[in-house]
Design brief:
This protein has about 300 residues and is an alpha+beta fold. The protein has helices spanning about 1-20, 205-215, 220-270; strands spanning about 25-30, 35, 45-50, 60, 70, 80-85, 95-100, 110-115, 120-125, 135-145, 150, 160, 165, 175-185, 185-190, 190-195, 290-295, 300-304. Strands 10, 11, 12, 14, 15 and 16 form a six-stranded antiparallel sheet that branches. A four-stranded mixed sheet has the order 1-7-6-3. Mean pLDDT is about 80; it is low at about 1-20.
């Protein structure tokens, strides 16, 4: 009876372990980690690192409760660990634990530089973060193949979502050395270095040669059409300006001529007539003492 109960318990544990998901544990590089064995809480257990021939090393030890202790964790310690009952032949009852080691960011990939005459474009890609989000990138440059001090590329802390940065104030036809790395909360990652040479600066003679090389490909028809359009526009503007000036000078002359025609009959009939005078104005010595009343252009009535 007891053997039957033990066999049932064994099968239950076997089914539970096979259906259980792999447990994941993460630790920072250089720290100590204790991995408990969920199968047995005694020292009578065996830990196996899958994919490694050397299962035990000096930094690994099994505690009294069956837990695995790893001191000063290295990046090579990451992997899948399984614990099982020791001294059991072909035991299928195992518990698996996946250990992840957090590190500073790995080396950036596909780092290239695309230089021009006085500036360069530095590009890169990110394959991993090391377990923690990347905080920023840092890039520097100096003259190639020298021991000069590194000069920072502005900004000093490149945003984490950037994948390129421009470098200004470079000298033409000069080789520069560039380096860049990523940073997370564990510190600076691996540094990647590349070289790039800026392009030659054109002299005045070279610029003139490039200009005359393309002169035979120049289309004069396009130039003639453009000149014709510009000249036609200028002619239209000139004619419009002359017309406006003519209209402005013509209108005041017509009004003045109309006023002179209305005043001529009054001056002939009454030499002392003043169209701007009023009734209270004193009479002139050559005119009558009566105030004339103008009925129309041909008749004048005197009031006594």
């Amino acid at each position: 009876m007891y053997k039957t109960i033990g066999f049932v318990v064994y099968l239950y544990i076997l089914c539970a372990i096979k259906g259980e998901k792999i447990r994941e544990i993460a630790v920072n590089i250089g720290k100590n980690i204790t991995i408990p064995c969920p199968l047995h809480q005694t020292r009578d257990v065996m830990w196996v690192r899958e994919g490694r021939e050397e299962q035990q090393h000096a930094r690994m030890s099994i505690l009294e409760n069956g837990s695995l202790l790893i001191t000063e964790v290295d990046q090579s310690d990451a992997g899948l660990y399984s614990c099982s009952r020791e001294n059991v032949v072909n035991s299928d009852v195992k518990a698996k634990v996946k250990l992840a080691v957090r590190t500073p960011p790995p080396r950036l990939s596909n780092v290239v530089v695309r230089p021009s005459t006085i500036l360069a474009l530095l590009l890169w890609e990110v394959d991993g973060t090391g377990g923690y989000p990347i905080i920023n990138f840092t890039a520097q440059y100096r003259l190639g193949y020298t021991n000069n001090s590194w000069m920072p590329i502005s900004p000093n802390h490149i945003p984490q979502n950037s994948r390129q940065i421009e470098v200004y104030k470079l000298e033409p036809n000069t080789t520069y050395q560039f380096r860049i790395w990523a940073t997370n909360q564990l510190g600076r990652g691996a540094i990647t270095e590349v070289y790039g040479t800026t392009l030659c600066e054109y002299t005045e003679l070279e610029l003139a040669r490039h200009f005359f090389d393309s002169a035979d490909k120049f289309d004069t028809t396009v130039w003639a059409i453009a000149v014709g359009i510009v000249m036609g526009t200028l002619v239209l503007l000139g004619l419009g300006t002359c017309f406006l000036l003519y209209q402005e000078c013509k209108v005041p002359g017509v009004v003045e001529e109309h006023e002179i025609i209305e005043l001529v009959p009054n001056i002939i009939l009454n030499p002392g007539f003043d169209p701007n005078s009023n009734a209270d104005q004193l009479p002139d010595e050559n005119s009558n003492s009566e105030t004339p009343m103008l009925l129309n252009n041909n008749t004048v009535v005197h009031n006594c």
